[in-house]
């Protein structure tokens, strides 16, 4: 099968222009999937899984969140996590998926956004997939830098500082690491405002106990960016009417770009279709 690709342009609740990429199946769709990328990331990097989902009959849209990719806004900046929630709602509306069973997939910061959005807004959706959600830092950050981040988040939230992310920690697939280094839509800084709001969202999500939607929680035990221990803890304690946990042994942060990604695509697609 061949996916049909289109670009969507729409606005969030506060008027921020947003962009998204849609991969639709040739025949009738069986489900609709919204993909939320990570921080300093963008929607086009999810092309492979989007095509794989479309080939399974899942109409898939990947949105550029505000401050990322082709969407408007200061790179990586937010005033509050609720702005991300509004972007998700706007993307869902723009998808115009009608009565199709609706699913969300969030990776890294996108996983944090998705978990926070679902817990705060209680949307109607058929299932939530998260891959290595950024619920806690995996890399060591000196206490001085952490303290400075909190202070700067209050005083100069628009200030951006180097994120310290090593692209080699993303995946064992070197072609994706090199593409990431060359990608003009990727940035290597983090805004103080995002750091402040992400820390607050992490606190909320790590204290979650119940989710109303079915949950497919994918995390790896060797992720240097999103804490493997925090993800294992949250995956185990979260209660859901239908929960599946998948631990990817030896894989790094971007499990959707790892060497065995096609097998994971099939697992995610099968999970979605069984609930459609």
Write a structural description:
The strands form two sheets. The chain has an eight-stranded mixed sheet. Helix 4 (143-155) packs across helix 6 (192-206). It is an alpha/beta fold and 276 residues long. It has eight helices and ten strands. The model has no long low-confidence stretch (mean pLDDT 95).
Strand order of the largest sheet: 1-2-4-3-5-6-9-10
Number of E strands: 10
Share in β-strands: 15-25%
Mean pLDDT: 95
Using the CA coordinates, give the radius of gyration: 17 Å
Distance between the termini: 20 Å
Helix content: 25-40%
| Biggest sheet character | 8 strands, mixed
Q: Low-confidence stretches at least 5 residues in length (pLDDT < 50)?
A: none
**How are helices and strands ordered from N to C?**
EEEHEHEHEHEHEHEHEH
The tally of helices reads 8
Secondary structure elements and pairings:
Elements: E1 4-11, E2 17-24, E3 31-36, H1 47-55, E4 58-64, H2 81-95, E5 102-107, H3 109-121, E6 127-131, H4 143-155, E7 160-162, H5 174-182, E8 189-191, H6 192-206, E9 215-220, H7 228-237, E10 243-248, H8 261-274
Parallel strand pairs: 3-4, 3-5, 5-6, 6-9, 9-10
Antiparallel strand pairs: 1-2, 2-4, 7-8
Helix pairs in contact: 2-3, 3-6, 4-6
Characteristics of this structure?
single chain; 276 residues; alpha/beta; eight-stranded mixed sheet; two-stranded antiparallel ribbon; 8 helices; 10 strands; 36% helix; globular
